[in-house]
Amino acid sequence: MSIETDIAAAIAGPPDLVREKLNSRVSVHGEFRQTAAVARALMSEIGPMDFADSALMHALDMICVKLARIASGDPLHADHWLYIAGYAMLAHDHLTAAEPGQTDRRSD
Questions:
Q1: pLDDT digits over 37-58, tens only?
Q2: Is the pTM higher than 0.90?
Q3: Which single residue of 7, 24, 73, 81 could bond 30 by disulfide (Cβ 3.0 to 4.6 Å)?
């Protein structure tokens, strides 16, 4: 069962269940405000990008969130690392996907 499925089920349940789910995630994902602050700090260090590609920006944003969870929560939680690799792979796939009339998107 995924985190998203757990949270969706919790949201559909009573408020105590939502709080229980959130509290159970703190040891793995870190305290919400700290994790959010770290993620935003990482994004501000990356700074404005010279491209307006929403898919790549989203991948970078999610990688920063996963790095923030590593810094704020449990760095030994394997899924954090797997999700970073997954978002990097999605960005790579996006860059190398052929568009109509195009064979590649900036690969060296």
A1: 999 999 999 887 776 688 999 9
A2: no
A3: 73
